[in-house]
Design a protein that fits this description.
Blueprint lengths: L21 H16 L4 H21 L10
Helix pairs in contact: 1-2
């Protein structure tokens, strides 16, 4: 989905992560900070971080890295 089709109050953040386990923790921290800045409830932040961790962990485990080595 391009940012042109998103509602005006939604922002898009691009993050390039390494195709390794350390990228998961980095992504979790970035997401937590982002959601906290927008005053998302702590329980919702925790849930979002859990979903992100599962998605990224599965991508690292089952998908090959991109040619440049990024996990984007």
């Amino acid at each position: 989905m391009s940012s042109a089709t998103l509602p005006a109050d939604v922002s898009v953040v691009d993050v390039v992560l390494p195709h390794e386990v350390s990228g998961v923790a980095h992504a979790r921290r970035r997401l937590a900070a982002y959601l906290k800045r927008f005053r998302v409830a702590e329980t919702a932040r925790d849930d979002a971080q859990l979903v992100l961790s599962e998605l990224l962990s599965n991508a690292i485990r089952y998908a090959p890295p991109l040619p440049a080595g990024e996990g984007q």
